[in-house]
Amino acid sequence: MKALIISSMIVLGGVSLLINCSDVDFKPLPSQACVNFNSQDGSNCTVEAGGLNDFTYSADTCKTDILFVVDNSGSMSTEQQRMAQSFPNFLGSIDDMDYQIAVTTTDTINDNGRLLPFGNGSKFIDKGTSNSVSLFENNIRRSETIACDNGDSAACASNDERGIFAANLAIMQARTRGNLNTFFRSEAHLAVIFLSDEDVRGNGGRDGKFLLTELDKPDSLVSNVTSHLGTHKTLSAHPIVVTSNSCQTVQLAQIPNRTTFASNDISGLTYLEFLTDSSLRASGTLTNATAGNICASNYTSELNGIATGIEIASRSTPLACNPRNLQVVYNGSILNQSNYSISATNVLSLVNINNCGQLDINYQCGL
Question: Which alpha helices (H) appear in 214-268, and where do they start and end?
Fold first, then answer.
Protein backbone atom coordinates (compact mmCIF):
# COMPACT_ATOMS: atom_id res chain seq x y z
CA MET A 1 0.00 0.00 0.00
CA LYS A 2 2.82 2.40 0.83
CA ALA A 3 4.50 1.66 -2.49
CA LEU A 4 1.33 2.49 -4.36
CA ILE A 5 1.00 5.79 -2.56
CA ILE A 6 4.60 6.72 -3.28
CA SER A 7 4.23 5.77 -6.95
CA SER A 8 1.10 7.90 -7.25
CA MET A 9 2.85 10.87 -5.71
CA ILE A 10 5.69 10.56 -8.20
CA VAL A 11 3.29 10.43 -11.13
CA LEU A 12 1.33 13.38 -9.85
CA GLY A 13 4.53 15.27 -9.28
CA GLY A 14 5.59 14.55 -12.81
CA VAL A 15 2.29 15.82 -14.18
CA SER A 16 2.64 18.91 -12.06
CA LEU A 17 6.14 19.45 -13.34
CA LEU A 18 5.01 19.16 -16.94
CA ILE A 19 2.25 21.69 -16.35
CA ASN A 20 4.57 24.17 -14.65
CA CYS A 21 7.10 23.95 -17.43
CA SER A 22 4.63 24.28 -20.31
CA ASP A 23 4.80 27.36 -22.57
CA VAL A 24 2.84 30.37 -21.23
CA ASP A 25 2.37 33.62 -23.13
CA PHE A 26 3.55 36.13 -20.51
CA LYS A 27 2.74 39.77 -21.29
CA PRO A 28 4.78 42.61 -19.79
CA LEU A 29 2.84 44.69 -17.28
CA PRO A 30 2.75 48.50 -17.38
CA SER A 31 4.73 50.43 -14.80
CA GLN A 32 2.87 52.39 -12.13
CA ALA A 33 3.87 55.57 -13.97
CA CYS A 34 2.15 54.18 -17.07
CA VAL A 35 -1.00 53.33 -15.11
CA ASN A 36 -1.07 56.81 -13.55
CA PHE A 37 -0.49 58.42 -16.93
CA ASN A 38 -3.54 56.75 -18.45
CA SER A 39 -5.79 58.17 -15.74
CA GLN A 40 -5.24 61.72 -17.01
CA ASP A 41 -6.81 63.63 -19.86
CA GLY A 42 -4.70 63.99 -22.98
CA SER A 43 -2.42 61.11 -22.00
CA ASN A 44 -1.86 57.60 -23.28
CA CYS A 45 0.60 54.90 -22.28
CA THR A 46 0.90 51.44 -23.81
CA VAL A 47 3.28 48.53 -23.24
CA GLU A 48 5.36 47.51 -26.23
CA ALA A 49 6.24 43.90 -27.00
CA GLY A 50 9.75 44.34 -25.65
CA GLY A 51 8.45 45.62 -22.31
CA LEU A 52 9.02 49.33 -22.94
CA ASN A 53 6.29 51.73 -21.82
CA ASP A 54 5.32 54.09 -24.64
CA PHE A 55 4.07 57.52 -23.48
CA THR A 56 2.10 60.00 -25.59
CA TYR A 57 1.04 63.37 -24.21
CA SER A 58 -0.49 66.54 -25.65
CA ALA A 59 -0.84 69.95 -24.05
CA ASP A 60 -1.58 73.58 -24.84
CA THR A 61 1.44 75.52 -23.57
CA CYS A 62 -0.55 78.71 -22.98
CA LYS A 63 -3.06 77.37 -20.48
CA THR A 64 -2.35 78.61 -16.95
CA ASP A 65 -4.48 78.67 -13.83
CA ILE A 66 -3.33 81.32 -11.33
CA LEU A 67 -4.34 81.16 -7.67
CA PHE A 68 -3.75 84.24 -5.50
CA VAL A 69 -3.49 83.41 -1.79
CA VAL A 70 -3.79 86.74 -0.01
CA ASP A 71 -3.16 87.46 3.67
CA ASN A 72 -6.41 89.05 4.86
CA SER A 73 -5.36 89.67 8.47
CA GLY A 74 -5.02 93.15 9.96
CA SER A 75 -2.27 95.45 8.64
CA MET A 76 -2.57 94.07 5.08
CA SER A 77 -4.87 96.66 3.48
CA THR A 78 -1.95 98.68 2.04
CA GLU A 79 -0.37 95.62 0.43
CA GLN A 80 -3.70 94.49 -0.99
CA GLN A 81 -4.15 97.94 -2.53
CA ARG A 82 -0.68 97.77 -4.12
CA MET A 83 -1.55 94.39 -5.61
CA ALA A 84 -4.79 95.77 -7.05
CA GLN A 85 -2.98 98.78 -8.55
CA SER A 86 -0.34 96.60 -10.23
CA PHE A 87 -2.81 94.05 -11.58
CA PRO A 88 -3.45 95.75 -14.98
CA ASN A 89 0.25 95.56 -15.84
CA PHE A 90 0.27 91.90 -14.79
CA LEU A 91 -2.61 91.16 -17.16
CA GLY A 92 -0.69 92.89 -19.93
CA SER A 93 2.32 90.66 -19.24
CA ILE A 94 0.28 87.45 -19.60
CA ASP A 95 -1.99 88.68 -22.39
CA ASP A 96 -0.82 85.99 -24.82
CA MET A 97 -1.80 83.22 -22.40
CA ASP A 98 -5.06 81.37 -21.84
CA TYR A 99 -5.30 82.25 -18.15
CA GLN A 100 -7.78 81.83 -15.33
CA ILE A 101 -7.39 83.69 -12.02
CA ALA A 102 -8.90 82.85 -8.64
CA VAL A 103 -8.48 84.20 -5.10
CA THR A 104 -8.45 82.65 -1.64
CA THR A 105 -7.04 83.84 1.68
CA THR A 106 -4.60 82.69 4.34
CA ASP A 107 -7.54 82.41 6.79
CA THR A 108 -8.19 78.66 6.90
CA ILE A 109 -10.69 79.03 9.75
CA ASN A 110 -13.24 81.18 7.91
CA ASP A 111 -12.39 80.72 4.22
CA ASN A 112 -10.86 77.22 4.39
CA GLY A 113 -9.14 77.46 1.02
CA ARG A 114 -12.37 78.17 -0.87
CA LEU A 115 -12.22 80.13 -4.12
CA LEU A 116 -13.81 83.45 -3.18
CA PRO A 117 -16.44 84.60 -5.69
CA PHE A 118 -15.87 87.75 -7.71
CA GLY A 119 -18.50 90.48 -8.03
CA ASN A 120 -19.99 88.77 -11.10
CA GLY A 121 -20.63 85.59 -9.08
CA SER A 122 -17.88 83.54 -10.73
CA LYS A 123 -15.14 81.75 -8.79
CA PHE A 124 -12.55 82.88 -11.33
CA ILE A 125 -11.97 85.41 -14.07
CA ASP A 126 -10.35 84.74 -17.42
CA LYS A 127 -9.21 86.52 -20.54
CA GLY A 128 -12.77 86.96 -21.74
CA THR A 129 -14.15 88.41 -18.49
CA SER A 130 -15.53 91.94 -18.74
CA ASN A 131 -14.29 94.45 -16.16
CA SER A 132 -11.70 91.96 -14.90
CA VAL A 133 -9.51 94.69 -13.37
CA SER A 134 -12.26 96.11 -11.16
CA LEU A 135 -13.50 92.61 -10.29
CA PHE A 136 -10.02 91.61 -9.16
CA GLU A 137 -9.53 94.82 -7.16
CA ASN A 138 -12.77 94.30 -5.26
CA ASN A 139 -11.85 90.71 -4.47
CA ILE A 140 -8.17 91.11 -3.54
CA ARG A 141 -8.93 94.13 -1.33
CA ARG A 142 -10.66 92.29 1.47
CA SER A 143 -13.45 94.12 3.30
CA GLU A 144 -12.57 92.34 6.54
CA THR A 145 -8.99 93.61 6.31
CA ILE A 146 -10.04 97.19 5.63
CA ALA A 147 -12.52 97.14 8.53
CA CYS A 148 -9.95 95.60 10.86
CA ASP A 149 -7.33 98.20 9.93
CA ASN A 150 -9.93 100.89 10.64
CA GLY A 151 -10.35 99.65 14.20
CA ASP A 152 -13.23 97.17 13.92
CA SER A 153 -11.70 94.24 15.80
CA ALA A 154 -14.85 92.13 15.35
CA ALA A 155 -14.31 92.16 11.59
CA CYS A 156 -10.71 90.94 11.75
CA ALA A 157 -9.85 87.68 10.00
CA SER A 158 -7.74 85.03 11.70
CA ASN A 159 -4.19 86.20 12.42
CA ASP A 160 -3.01 82.59 12.09
CA GLU A 161 -1.84 83.06 8.50
CA ARG A 162 -1.60 79.70 6.72
CA GLY A 163 -1.14 80.38 3.01
CA ILE A 164 0.30 76.99 2.01
CA PHE A 165 -2.38 75.19 4.01
CA ALA A 166 -5.05 77.24 2.21
CA ALA A 167 -3.60 76.38 -1.22
CA ASN A 168 -3.52 72.71 -0.22
CA LEU A 169 -7.17 72.81 0.82
CA ALA A 170 -8.14 74.43 -2.48
CA ILE A 171 -6.43 71.59 -4.37
CA MET A 172 -7.43 68.68 -2.14
CA GLN A 173 -11.11 69.68 -2.16
CA ALA A 174 -11.25 70.79 -5.78
CA ARG A 175 -13.42 67.86 -6.84
CA THR A 176 -15.98 68.11 -4.03
CA ARG A 177 -16.25 71.89 -4.46
CA GLY A 178 -16.78 71.67 -8.22
CA ASN A 179 -13.45 73.30 -9.08
CA LEU A 180 -11.78 70.34 -10.80
CA ASN A 181 -11.70 70.76 -14.59
CA THR A 182 -13.34 74.16 -14.17
CA PHE A 183 -10.72 76.31 -12.47
CA PHE A 184 -8.12 73.57 -12.06
CA ARG A 185 -7.80 72.40 -15.66
CA SER A 186 -5.98 69.09 -16.18
CA GLU A 187 -3.92 70.35 -19.11
CA ALA A 188 -3.04 73.76 -17.61
CA HIS A 189 -0.04 74.89 -15.61
CA LEU A 190 -0.82 75.96 -12.02
CA ALA A 191 0.78 79.09 -10.58
CA VAL A 192 0.25 80.02 -6.92
CA ILE A 193 1.01 83.60 -5.84
CA PHE A 194 1.28 84.17 -2.08
CA LEU A 195 0.97 87.69 -0.60
CA SER A 196 1.71 87.89 3.12
CA ASP A 197 3.54 90.22 5.51
CA GLU A 198 4.29 87.35 7.92
CA ASP A 199 5.63 83.84 7.58
CA VAL A 200 3.40 80.78 7.76
CA ARG A 201 1.61 80.77 11.15
CA GLY A 202 3.30 84.09 11.95
CA ASN A 203 6.86 82.89 12.28
CA GLY A 204 7.11 79.54 10.51
CA GLY A 205 6.82 77.63 13.78
CA ARG A 206 10.21 78.89 14.88
CA ASP A 207 9.02 79.90 18.37
CA GLY A 208 7.71 76.40 19.12
CA LYS A 209 4.20 77.71 19.88
CA PHE A 210 2.43 77.56 16.53
CA LEU A 211 4.01 74.49 14.98
CA LEU A 212 3.65 73.78 11.30
CA THR A 213 1.53 70.81 10.27
CA GLU A 214 2.41 68.79 7.17
CA LEU A 215 -0.05 70.85 5.11
CA ASP A 216 1.75 74.06 6.11
CA LYS A 217 4.98 72.91 4.43
CA PRO A 218 5.99 73.51 0.81
CA ASP A 219 6.61 69.84 0.00
CA SER A 220 2.96 69.02 0.78
CA LEU A 221 1.76 71.44 -1.90
CA VAL A 222 4.04 69.85 -4.50
CA SER A 223 2.87 66.33 -3.65
CA ASN A 224 -0.83 67.30 -3.53
CA VAL A 225 -0.65 68.87 -6.97
CA THR A 226 0.58 65.50 -8.26
CA SER A 227 -1.84 63.31 -6.32
CA HIS A 228 -4.98 65.42 -6.84
CA LEU A 229 -4.39 67.17 -10.17
CA GLY A 230 -2.22 64.66 -12.10
CA THR A 231 1.34 63.43 -12.46
CA HIS A 232 2.13 65.63 -15.46
CA LYS A 233 0.65 68.74 -13.83
CA THR A 234 3.26 71.47 -13.33
CA LEU A 235 3.39 74.00 -10.49
CA SER A 236 5.14 77.31 -9.98
CA ALA A 237 5.17 79.11 -6.61
CA HIS A 238 5.61 82.86 -6.24
CA PRO A 239 5.72 84.31 -2.71
CA ILE A 240 5.61 88.08 -2.24
CA VAL A 241 6.83 88.24 1.34
CA VAL A 242 9.34 89.78 3.72
CA THR A 243 12.74 89.11 2.15
CA SER A 244 15.14 91.56 3.83
CA ASN A 245 16.08 93.06 7.20
CA SER A 246 14.92 96.51 6.18
CA CYS A 247 11.53 95.11 5.18
CA GLN A 248 11.29 93.33 8.52
CA THR A 249 11.74 96.66 10.29
CA VAL A 250 8.94 98.24 8.25
CA GLN A 251 6.56 95.36 8.85
CA LEU A 252 7.33 95.03 12.56
CA ALA A 253 6.45 98.70 13.02
CA GLN A 254 2.88 97.87 11.89
CA ILE A 255 2.37 95.14 14.52
CA PRO A 256 0.92 96.07 17.95
CA ASN A 257 3.02 94.82 20.88
CA ARG A 258 5.78 94.13 18.43
CA THR A 259 8.31 93.69 21.23
CA THR A 260 6.99 90.12 21.52
CA PHE A 261 8.34 89.35 18.05
CA ALA A 262 11.94 88.35 17.39
CA SER A 263 13.69 90.15 14.55
CA ASN A 264 13.36 87.26 12.08
CA ASP A 265 9.89 86.10 13.13
CA ILE A 266 8.01 87.53 10.18
CA SER A 267 10.59 86.83 7.47
CA GLY A 268 8.90 84.63 4.86
CA LEU A 269 11.41 81.79 5.20
CA THR A 270 8.88 78.98 4.84
CA TYR A 271 7.45 80.44 1.63
CA LEU A 272 10.97 81.03 0.34
CA GLU A 273 11.72 77.30 0.60
CA PHE A 274 10.00 77.00 -2.78
CA LEU A 275 13.10 78.77 -4.10
CA THR A 276 15.81 77.53 -1.73
CA ASP A 277 14.98 73.84 -1.22
CA SER A 278 16.20 72.02 -4.34
CA SER A 279 14.61 68.74 -3.20
CA LEU A 280 11.18 70.21 -3.98
CA ARG A 281 12.03 69.98 -7.70
CA ALA A 282 13.02 66.31 -7.59
CA SER A 283 9.62 65.05 -8.80
CA GLY A 284 9.52 67.46 -11.75
CA THR A 285 6.21 69.00 -10.60
CA LEU A 286 7.66 72.28 -9.30
CA THR A 287 9.19 73.85 -12.39
CA ASN A 288 9.64 77.48 -11.38
CA ALA A 289 9.68 79.72 -8.30
CA THR A 290 10.26 83.45 -7.99
CA ALA A 291 10.01 85.77 -4.99
CA GLY A 292 8.87 89.37 -4.62
CA ASN A 293 9.40 92.00 -1.94
CA ILE A 294 6.21 92.85 -0.06
CA CYS A 295 7.74 96.19 0.99
CA ALA A 296 8.04 97.39 -2.62
CA SER A 297 6.22 100.68 -3.18
CA ASN A 298 4.25 98.97 -5.94
CA TYR A 299 4.23 95.41 -7.21
CA THR A 300 4.70 96.02 -10.92
CA SER A 301 8.26 94.69 -10.92
CA GLU A 302 7.30 91.75 -8.68
CA LEU A 303 4.38 90.75 -10.89
CA ASN A 304 6.38 91.20 -14.10
CA GLY A 305 8.97 88.77 -12.74
CA ILE A 306 6.22 86.36 -11.76
CA ALA A 307 4.64 86.63 -15.21
CA THR A 308 7.95 85.70 -16.80
CA GLY A 309 8.30 82.75 -14.44
CA ILE A 310 4.78 81.57 -15.25
CA GLU A 311 5.42 81.71 -18.99
CA ILE A 312 8.62 79.70 -18.61
CA ALA A 313 6.91 77.15 -16.38
CA SER A 314 3.90 76.78 -18.68
CA ARG A 315 6.24 75.63 -21.45
CA SER A 316 7.66 72.83 -19.30
CA THR A 317 6.36 69.34 -18.58
CA PRO A 318 7.65 66.48 -16.40
CA LEU A 319 8.56 63.20 -18.09
CA ALA A 320 8.14 59.79 -16.46
CA CYS A 321 11.81 58.88 -16.98
CA ASN A 322 14.99 59.78 -18.82
CA PRO A 323 13.30 59.21 -22.18
CA ARG A 324 14.24 56.93 -25.05
CA ASN A 325 13.27 57.64 -28.66
CA LEU A 326 11.92 61.07 -27.71
CA GLN A 327 9.93 63.00 -30.31
CA VAL A 328 8.78 66.55 -29.57
CA VAL A 329 6.30 68.20 -31.93
CA TYR A 330 5.21 71.82 -31.59
CA ASN A 331 2.39 73.22 -33.70
CA GLY A 332 2.82 70.29 -36.08
CA SER A 333 6.59 70.65 -36.58
CA ILE A 334 9.15 68.23 -35.16
CA LEU A 335 11.61 70.08 -32.91
CA ASN A 336 15.32 69.39 -32.82
CA GLN A 337 17.28 69.30 -29.58
CA SER A 338 18.20 72.97 -29.81
CA ASN A 339 14.55 73.85 -29.17
CA TYR A 340 14.13 71.98 -25.89
CA SER A 341 16.10 70.92 -22.83
CA ILE A 342 15.68 68.12 -20.29
CA SER A 343 16.67 68.75 -16.67
CA ALA A 344 18.28 66.33 -14.25
CA THR A 345 14.78 65.72 -12.83
CA ASN A 346 13.44 64.83 -16.31
CA VAL A 347 11.53 68.04 -16.94
CA LEU A 348 11.29 68.97 -20.62
CA SER A 349 11.31 72.73 -21.29
CA LEU A 350 10.93 74.48 -24.61
CA VAL A 351 13.82 76.78 -25.53
CA ASN A 352 13.66 79.90 -27.74
CA ILE A 353 9.96 79.36 -28.40
CA ASN A 354 7.87 82.29 -27.25
CA ASN A 355 4.58 81.74 -29.05
CA CYS A 356 1.67 79.70 -27.75
CA GLY A 357 0.97 76.34 -29.29
CA GLN A 358 0.17 72.65 -29.17
CA LEU A 359 2.89 70.46 -27.66
CA ASP A 360 2.86 66.74 -28.55
CA ILE A 361 5.38 64.42 -26.92
CA ASN A 362 6.11 60.73 -27.51
CA TYR A 363 8.80 58.75 -25.73
CA GLN A 364 9.58 55.39 -24.16
CA CYS A 365 10.64 54.24 -20.70
CA GLY A 366 12.17 50.94 -19.63
CA LEU A 367 10.56 48.94 -16.84
Answer: 218-229, 245-252
pLDDT tens profile 354-366 = 888 999 999 999 8
pTM: 0.86
Question: Mapping DSSP to helix (H, G, I), strand (E, B) and coil, where does residue 117 land?
Answer: coil
What are the structural domains, with CATH classification, of the chain? 32-59+318-365 (no CATH), 63-314 (3.40.50)
The β-bridge relationship of strands 53-60 and 358-365 is antiparallel
Query: Do 274 and 243 form a contact (C-beta atoms < 8 A)?
Result: no
Distance of CA 39 to CAs 73, 168, 186, Å?
40, 21, 11
37 vs 236: CA distance, rounded Å: 21
Residues 278 and 238: their CA atoms lie apart, in Å, by 15
Q: Rounded to whole angstroms, how far apart are CA atoms 50 and 109? A: 54
* Burial class (CB within 10 angstroms; exposed 0-12, middle 13-18, buried 19+) of 204: buried
